[in-house]
Amino acid sequence: MSQTTQFIYGTTLAVICCCANPLSAQITPTFSSAEIKPFLASAVLPTSAPFSTSNTEPLPDAPEPTSSTGDASPIEGKPDSGSGASSIYTFPDAHQRFKSYLASAFGPGSFVAAGIASGVDQAHPLKVGYPADGFNAPGKHPAHGAVPEWSEGFDGYAKRYASRYGEHLVSATAFYGLGVLLHEDVTYHQCECSGIVRRSSHALTQTFIAHTTSGKAIPSLPALVAPFVGAEVGVAGWFPARYGVSDALRQSEDLYIGLPIQNFVKEFLRR
């Protein structure tokens, strides 16, 4: 029988005896509250595990929230994947930027694009029918990059191909070089969204967008300047002397058009 049950039985028996025999109440010993409390505590609480606040262990602290790396921040203006999770952006280091430059300047797409553009230039003389002297009048040139003085055939195509690729190489160098000087990330970042429409819109809108070291989206000055630099170097370097700044502006149109085309290729063929 437990101590609690013994205490209840004993107390009940004492009360019955006191009520039945008044004399016994006179001789019944009295206990003070100070003496009863320890007895009650020993009767109610198990002796094998006494209650003591000194033996209780403090609860463990809640885990502290962990943060990402100090140089990582969400890209502003970059569409998410539609799940509501924010994308994390890390500014590329020198090795990553140089790798992106090599892929843009010497990747397979650059050679294919130069081949297509030079093929278009090669086809224009066959349709337009240039005069023998190569141009109609001083200062009036065909509205394309096919230099008549470079003749036709394989020799003419080789010159046009070298010209187109040279302009692209200069433009890519200026593009990534200005990005380094301005501390901007000019690398194209694929969309984390899904669907052809959203991904196509992202590829188009990101053509003239760069990112700062904090991940903030800003207008890309290198994307605005680099194509003209490539065309101007080509006109001043290996085009006939009669070509000038106006011809460089016309020649740069193809380079500007090539920027979003490159983004589309990177968006849909490199995922």
| Secondary-structure content class | mainly alpha
Which spans have pLDDT < 50 for at least 5 consecutive residues?
Answer: 22-28, 43-54, 67-77, 79-86
Average predicted confidence as pLDDT: 73
Side by side, the strands of the main sheet go 1-2
Whole-number total of structural domains: 2
Succession of helices and strands: HHHEEHHHHEEHH
> Helical region count?
9
Strand content: under 5%
The main β sheet shows up as: 2 strands, antiparallel
Give the tally of β-strands: 4
Q: Which overall shape is indicated by the principal axes computed on the Cα atoms?
A: elongated
Computed over alpha carbons, the radius of gyration is 43 Å
Helix content: 55-70%
Cα distance spanning the termini: 77 Å
Structure description:
By secondary structure, the protein is mainly alpha-helical. The protein folds into 2 domains: 3-44, no CATH class; 72-269, no CATH class. Helices cover 56% and strands 4% of the residues. The chain has helices at residues 3-20, 22-27, 33-44, 94-106, 108-128, 153-181, 196-205, 221-237, 245-269, and strands spanning 72-74, 88-90, 209-211, 217-219. The strands form 2 sheets. The chain has a two-stranded antiparallel ribbon. Helix 4 packs parallel to helix 5 (108-128), helix 6 (153-181) runs antiparallel to helix 8 (221-237) and helix 8 (221-237) packs across helix 9. The protein is elongated. Residues 22-28, 43-54, 67-77 and 79-86 have low confidence and may be disordered.
